[in-house]
Amino acid sequence: MSNLRLPERPGEVIDRGTPLSFTWNGKSFTGHRGDTIASALTANGVEVFARSMKYKRKRGIMTADHWDPNLFVQVGDEPNVRAGSRRLEAGMQVSAQNVWPNLNFDVGTANQVVGRFLSSGFYYKTFMRPKWFWHNVYQRVLRKFAPGGRIHWETSTHGAYDKRYAHPDVLVAGGGPAGMAAAVSAAEADAKVMLVEHEPELGGHLRWGDADDLAALAELRSAVDAHPNIEVLLDSTVTGRYDHNWVAVMQRSHDIAPERLVKARVGSLVVAPGLIERPYVFSGNDTPGVMLSGAARRLINLWAVKPGSKAVVLSANPEGDAVIADLEAAGVEIVAALDARAGDDIAEVKGSGRVSKVVLGDGRTVDADLVVTATGWTAPTSLLNMAGDRPVYDPSAARYFPNQVPDNVLATGGITGNGSTAELAAHGTATGTLAANRALRLRHARRAAASRARSPEGPRPEVLEDTRTPLARVPHPECYLSSGANAKKGMVDYSEDVAAKDLVQAAGEGFDSIELMKRYTTVTMGPTQGKLETVNAAAVLAKARQMEMVDIGTTVWRPPYAPISLGALAGRIFEPVRRSALQDWHDAHGAAPLLAGQWVRPDHYGDPMGEALNVRENVGIIDVTPLGKLDLRGPDVTKLLELVYVNKWQKLDIGRVRYGTMVAEDGVVSDDGVTGRLGEDHYLMTTTSSGAGAVWEMLEDYLQTYRPEWDVHVTAVTGGLTSINVAGPKSRELLLRLVDGVDLSPEAFPYFNVRRGTVAGVEDCIIWRIGFTGELSYEVHVPSGHALHVWEALLANGEDLGIKPFGVESQRILRLEKGHYIVGQDTDGLTKAPSAGLGGLVKLDKPDTLGLPELKAAYERTDLPVLVAVQPDDPQLVPTEADQIVDGDSNRILGRITSSRMSPTLGRSVCLGQVDPSLAAAGTSVTILLVDGRRTTGTVQEHHAHVDPEGVRQNV
Amino acid sequence: MIVVPCPNCGPRNSSDLRPCGEITSRPDPATASLSEWRTYLYLRENPAGWVTETWYCRSGCRRYFTIERNTATNEIRDSEVS
Ligand SMILES: [Zn+2]
Description:
- The complex is a heterodimer of chains A (956) and B (82).
- Chain A has 956 residues and is an alpha+beta fold.
- Chain A has six domains: 109 residues, 2Fe-2S iron-sulphur cluster binding domain, sarcosine oxidase, alpha subunit, N-terminal domain (Ubiquitin-like (UB roll)); 183 residues, FAD/NAD(P)-binding domain (3-Layer(bba) Sandwich), CATH 3.50.50; 97 residues, 3-Layer(bba) Sandwich (FAD/NAD(P)-binding domain), CATH 3.50.50; 94 residues, Arc Repressor Mutant, subunit A, CATH 1.10.10; 209 residues, Probable tRNA modification gtpase trme, domain 1 (Gyrase A, domain 2); 92 residues, Aminomethyltransferase beta-barrel domains (Elongation Factor Tu (Ef-tu), domain 3).
- Chain A has 23 helices and 50 strands.
- In chain A, the strands form 13 sheets. Chain A has a seven-stranded mixed β-sheet, with helices on both faces.
- Chain B is mostly beta strands.
- Chain B has one domain: 2-Layer Sandwich (Folate-binding fold), CATH 3.30.2270.10.
- In chain B, 11% of the residues lie in helices and 40% in strands.
- Chain B is built from one helix and six strands.
- Zinc ion binds next to loops of chain B.
């Protein structure tokens, strides 16, 4: 392999003292620290990096940066790595992707095979008919065509992605001369600044410039480094700007996380992305060896790599002129230096796998292996578009310029005009000062508006007028499409393999608006997302329709500006996992963890059926801490309870507990639980575990916005009190050994009562006698700091009674045996109160209760589904929850099974289900459609309770 | 994600709060017709412009408060505890 590494260059970023070994398609190569994958491969003589998506053409370096459409490679188990920007690391296993049939084989035959995939709109046309062809041919061929590497689910080692919130006053997107100057001046104006640069170093185009550029860069960099108010994020991209200056930054330079999503709330956003060089459209413009001037200069000046040996240069601007000196310094022979401003042109490039001949505009043909074009710039206005701007095309400068942006978004640098380094920096400086002023005024106003939040420091800064001198718009020829006869064969979109002729064809078929053409041809829809091809596409369309560019418009730039991995978006979720004070004990005693909402809970301790039976026979304890608990105090609690529960609450004596169901204003069952009266103006409400937060918010809503005159104070005590249910025929016997200050006799402490007392020496426990399991049971609420002591005391003192802990699964079995429904499982978002079988519980004669008109209407209906208990006629068959209840042999749905379990108490399967009212009568036979397609029958029961419908066991 | 000014907690990301929609007036449930009730439940002005709406400071002070917000621009004028 050849060695194309040049002698040392003044601005080179490679560390020649640190060689890095890596492989390319299995072969070993060496690069240096500071190389990109692409620069290291080029230095080793690699010319072809990929095959194009449709035509399978060989592709080489085009832009040598993040946007290069031809440099997608596989690195180890990571697909779609951008070799133009990813830094080389020792031991990288790099391979070409999307290379079917293979990287170097010539693919004329493949082109014939797949001819019908190649024309515009092939997505829409090709797969229409015949139908059988889809399975047999299209699918298999298309899969070969699908771009992208291989994902390795099993071995993925990409670690944990992360997120961060940031609140800089000023965020500068782009670390070129204008961006750096803006960051410094904003920081000097006392703003907190975040400076975000896409590349791994600050400097923008100065980095691959001449000696003056490098000197200016050093000066600006040291000013940035010296300022404590500036945080620099390198190798990071601002991917989106949203309302109120919510700015998303994708940080790829984090020490640990492969990518970190920085969510920045920004006072002022300074948009300084510079300009992106535009490819030129001519036949053969995607041949390896054709590259943009920026690519050639980067290869030579940053990585000291010789890009070719005999070059044709086509230049329309000073940056293009500068490439000639760089090429000469690198020992490249200039075969032809063409000046587009003087009418010079490239008609066609020939060569397979590498440029070999160039047909010039004047008809001459020259031998060359390198073609460098500098035919114009695209303004990456994405962030401005996202802020509502509609940039306007200026034909005299051959690019778009910002038009109108909100005050909190400011553009600077090349995107706004042309200038020397000093002029760009001066514009940046003025912009930074202005941005800081606006940000600091906003910060002041926000603090002043929040009277009880942090007060502002000092007076509000005066308004600074925008007195910036705009940068000049230097005239630039409109160079889009070559004058060569075959120019329309030239590529417009390299990643999607869309040539100019495809766009012309689409326009001819009537897809002649830019937005329609985009969707029809997929131009701009590939990984480069329009950075290189949007303006060329518009220019080709303008020419085809003989219109002006300004009248064609462009496609809309939408976020994200650069691709974001799904891992980064998923990232870390800042939501706490809630654990009761007993969860460590559960973990240590073999509990299977169950994730329920925010909570981790014990599902069972190994034998859910046995644990459930033990509750029926002896005594069990379960940690039910996630049960929502709201402490209600004040003289108007009763009014609140009357409002939010469907039943009546006026005559609840102190020491009594009552069950209640809640419905929303639309009459749909929303939650249920028990509320006990602890004192004159003191109640404890329990909610379902999953509904705890919503009920709390709902109570606050009505108290704050509907009845602010009511005197009720709500305190959430869900985590503060650890809740232990002691259930089973021997539960009273157990508690007698541990409870002080409460008479536990059935006469003194009957069912649905609450007492306060001392449990295992812990004072101020709340004990209420209720029975979700259907057994004699007590729910003990213990201050959480003492919960473990009480739990262990219960176990120790119940040993001879056969005590066992049980988990959520056993509780679900027990409650289903007892026929208690669970809101959200046995009910759904359409279940109105009558469907839940609440019957006499609902009181329609109250003056005010949530959803009252809906409740009244619902009770007049006869067509609502009914919740019933069902027992399968095959007692060993347990239908799956959500199995449908159908009409005999037909598929007409008449209901569904909402809960099902094998009952250890009865030795048979038991269910709850919602059925059509025609099936609700006890004794009705229903047909259940099982998951596997079989049908079975079941019988509707008289009561919801399969076990002890009379409630004898819980009333002892 | 917009910034919503809580009168107690100051400007917060809207993800810290719960939007409760345009302010509505709850009819007397004892006398409201079903049609009036469903208008209250489901029908909103939904203008492209200024609207007075309620937010709940769920991660902060737990107050319900109202703001005036322009639904077309997300400009916010004022906030007060309801
Ligand atoms: Zn608040």
